Amino acid sequence: MAKAAIITGSTSGIGLGMAESLAGAGYNIMFNGLARDEKEKNAAEEVAKKTAERYEVKTLFSPANMMKPEEIREMCAWAEKDFGQVDVLVNNAGIQHVSPIDEFPEEKWDAIIAINLTAAFHTSKAVWKGMKSRGFGRIINLTSAHALRASEFKSAYVSSKHGVTGLTKTLALEGAPHGITCNAICPGYVMTPLVQNQIEDQMKAHNMERDEVVEKVMLYKHAIKDFAQVHELGALAVFLASDEAKMITGVSIPVDGGWTAR
Q1: 74-104: pLDDT as tens digits
Q2: Deepest in the core among 91, 114, 126, 215, taking most CB within 10 A?
């Protein structure tokens, strides 16, 4: 039976890169992403369909909202039923908001903690029983350099990612007797459409050219003055999902160009 993976927030950006890398390694994929209307749902289903055709694997798409535990449980149960098993869970979905603490909207705090941290608890809990019964499982949490370092004006994001670091370590210990590993990938800045838009916003805000914004603003903390690429993160996920990575668990692996080496 082909192995299968659930990847939250996987219809674009880092999540899509993860999905394509795992599909390329032969995994069936449960895609996930918000679909606020029929147009978005059709677009997401098309992403899943094209991935299935390109890599000759089976794919599904769930619009499960990561703020709703019941929808998360239904997504995981659907993947288990349709694929026969879930071998890999990638907790990738996340949101961000930047604001000083005294101005930080409380509803933004609640949403960031729910999507970035609490959802990872619910997904992990939902797949745990099946992984435990089969004696194999791989949980990969996409955190951030901000899981290891803090920055101003990102109280909710930094707190959520530090929380996922703690969850990662706990699940690694609980999973060790059952062949389940849990690790975190901690990217710095990754070249995605979202980051490309941020560069353009920063150019306007600072009245700078693109190269200057990249060097002095975006990659200021990177020792290697370059962006990580989604396929690089995907390659790491494929390795962490493999049998060869069975002794790697409970760790947070920076892919940050040397940011956290400072």
Answers
A1: 999 999 999 999 999 999 999 999 899 999 9
A2: 91
Whether pTM exceeds 0.85: yes
Main-chain phi, psi angles of 29, to 5 degrees:
-125, 130
Residue 45: per-residue pLDDT: 97
Active-site hit among 27, 55, 157, 189:
157
Q: Any idea which residue has 């929808």 for tokens?
A: 71
Residue 165 has which token pair?
């670091």
Q: Choose between 239 and 204: higher pLDDT.
A: 239
Looking at this protein, which amino acid is placed at residue 170?
A: T
Rounded to an integer, what distance in angstroms lies between the CA atom of residue 106 and that of residue 54?
43
| For range 141-166, the mean pLDDT | 96
CA dihedral 139, 30, 15, 2 (to 10 degrees): 60
183 φ/ψ angles, rounded to the nearest 5 degrees: -135, 165
In this prediction, residue 241 carries a pLDDT of: 98
Instruction: Please state, in angstroms and as integers, the Cα–Cα distance from residue 257 to each residue in 12, 70, 223, following that order.
Output: 23, 38, 6
Res 198 pLDDT > 90 = no
In the residue annotation, 55 being an active-site residue is answered as no
HSE, CB side, 13 Å, CA atoms: give it for residue 166. Answer: 9
Confidence of residue 227 (pLDDT cuts 50, 70, 90): very high
Structure tokens at 112: 């960031």
What's CA 186's distance to the chain center, in Å? 10
- The domains of the chain are located at 4-190+228-261, 191-226
What the block records as the tokens of 35 is 């679909």
Residue in 112, 131, 144, 113 with CA at minimum distance from that of residue 171: 131
